[in-house]
Amino acid sequence: MRLEDYWGVGPKTAETLRGTLGEERAISAIESADVAALADAGVSRGRATWVLRRANGEAGMDLFGTADARNVYDRLLTLAAEFAVTEHAADRVRVLTPLTDPADRRDRLDDVLEARDAWIGLDDEEREAVLDAFREFDEAGGTDTAAVRTALALRAAGLRGGTFAALEDIDEDALREAGEALAAFSGTFDQSGEDGGSGEIAEGADERLDRLREQRDAARELEDSAFDVIETIRERGVRDADAFRSTVVEYVASETDLTRGRVESAAPDGAVDSADFVSATLRGLASDLDADVAEHEAEVRAELEAAVEEAGGDVDAAVTAVSDIAFLLSLARFAVEYDLTRPVLDGDGTDGDSENGDAGDGGEGGVGGRVDGVAVDGARNLFLAGDVQPVTYAVGDHGLDIDAPSGDRVTVLTGANSGGKTTLLETLCQVTVLASMGLPVPAEAAEVGSFDTVVFHRRHASFNAGVLEATLKSIVPPLSGEGRTLMLVDEFEAITEPGRAADLLNGLVELTVDRGALGAYVTHLADDLSPLPDVARVDGIFAEGLTNDLKLRVDYQPRFGTVGKSTPEFIVSRLVANSSDRSEKAGFQKLASAVGEEAVQRTLSDADWSG
């Protein structure tokens, strides 16, 4: 396979990777989802992330039928990566993709929740020890040596079982010896042997090697300043040739910490003059010491490589364990921060292991382990800051013990402006995307079926034929194709005239039902819709008035089977109350009489406003 065969790798990117990594190493980096390697090679981190997502999970990426759905996915992983304990773990989180095999989703969910429970079970001191170990891992560059030290640190912290079980089978003494050996290589030693042996042995690894290097460096320094050596000897008043030779040998021996005999062995026999004798002696001595350093360095390297090879399995296990533990703990911290819980997934069966209580037995919507819908109890939108009102909602069949009806294939969501309708669609999208990746979800309980495509389409306030055409081309093909589709579509009336929007929405609802898909559609045109199919229902969100500081007070929990109202009197009431210009206020009061002056006055009274 060539680099150009990977999605997103064009001729320019391929040339960059070949020039820095070479074809084989670049392909290896792509196959192993190594964002850092591609980024260091000159590919932008964002592009590297998308290339690796496609390279390692292309089938899963087909889940996203629209740009808005992909945006939710990208933001979720960006949010999760903020809780990563290492840079490499953050990269692994960012390249997560939906899993097409339900068994893989359940396996990952098990691992993440086990890690979540492990993190919760640590006390503050233990958590800090874990984070310190991973911080040192990053500071050391994430090398094999750093992984060995991190594994030893995690073992020293007493972490055992579950998420940390992989550390228990490692021979700690062998790992420690291998770690010391690895630490001795300051260059490019690699267990794979690709660059093995080309790295320099670090200072402190071998006492004799350190001494030889110091002597060699001292001889080189004298060689570079041979004329200064001659001048120093002459300043001592030495004129006789034999005395000059003897003094030079003595001086060089003292400056290099070598014996006289060692220096004399490098001195030439037939030097023509004093300058030739000094330069030849220093040149020969530096060359001899170079050879001594290289010879002993090779001996030390062989011993170190043998030590690493002897514990190679333990080193490999440590590297893998540290990477996997960092990855799972990163997702665990994300789950703890947002109180994410296990959803019931399609195919979970009747083993009753769900932490959502009765939802784990499949219920009415989970017969034979089949989950054929999306249902949430106490769901929260992860992109909203501050206190968020949890909502309960369902599309399709479900077995949760909630008030939301089961069995409706399509819902039409209506209600007040700024009432949270789009936020609810986005919340359902978040829950579905997280579950598709085998991750816990932001809800007290949830059931999530398997989908081939998720079509999430936000309201786009552009009223022209081009936008309408682009929108229809975006959302209809996934619904018309093969596979199960979840439709989450915002206000159609924003892109065409209301009457035609109602016709289009009717057509989409009927197409959704005909294709066996599920859908939630937001609209203000419920009263204009033709009779909906029996398996569709209309839900409503209601504004309840203004707060004392004249903010819209909304009950974000939809009321099932009820058309929501936009209640414009609340908005007009706020405009009347906030207007300081007399003529402007008169204009808004005119609008108040049009929408119902009594209702406006009652709203202002309920808000305890005076002015």
Short description:
The chain has 611 residues and is of the alpha/beta class.
Name its key features:
ATP-dependent DNA damage sensor activity, Rossmann fold, 22 helices, 611 residues, 10 strands, 4-stranded mixed beta sheet, alpha/beta, 4 domains, 6-stranded mixed beta sheet
Describe the structure.
Helices cover 53% and strands 10% of the residues. The protein is of the alpha/beta class. The protein folds into 4 domains: 165 residues; 103 residues; 223 residues, P-loop containing nucleotide triphosphate hydrolases (Rossmann fold, 3-Layer(aba) Sandwich); 45 residues, no CATH class. A 6-stranded mixed beta sheet has the order 6-7-8-4-9-10, with helices on both faces. A 4-stranded mixed beta sheet has the order 1-5-2-3. Strand 6, helix 18 and strand 7 form a beta-alpha-beta unit. Helix 7 crosses helix 16, helix 9 packs antiparallel against helix 10 and helix 12 packs across helix 13. About 5% of the residues have low confidence. Keywords: ATP-binding, DNA-binding, Nucleotide-binding. One of its GO terms (biological process) is mismatch repair. InterPro entries: DNA_mismatch_repair_MutS_C, MutS, P-loop_NTPase. It comes from Halorarum halophilum. This is DNA mismatch repair protein.
